[in-house]
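Appendix B, Record 12. Input sequence as logged:
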Amino acid sequence: MQEIIGDALKNLIQTIIAVTFPILITYLSRYLASMTKSEVAERCIMEVADAVTTAVLYVNQTYVDEMRKTNAFNTANQRYALTMATDKAKDLLSDEATQFLEKTHGNIAQYIAPKIEAAVKRQK
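Logged structural output:
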């Protein structure tokens, strides 16, 4: 009698494990995937911030400072400096960050330009 109950209990536990294990694996996989996406997003956002800061400093040193020395830093030159900084920031981004921005924001230049403007304002 005990052997029959023991076998029945063993079969019940095996059935429960067989049914719940795939469900648990599915949830665990989804959780890990969401964590990975968050980590990628965070890494890419930090990379964009670093690229923007570096690009603004670069353009200030190589272009803006010279324009200011000669009093030639007008609206057209400001637009050109923004284009230079945007291009430099895009060049500094890894393929992963570029793909992330294209996927999440579409136009990278439109995403980066306001960040460059904000970085310029912080430097003043």
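The radius of gyration is 27 Å.
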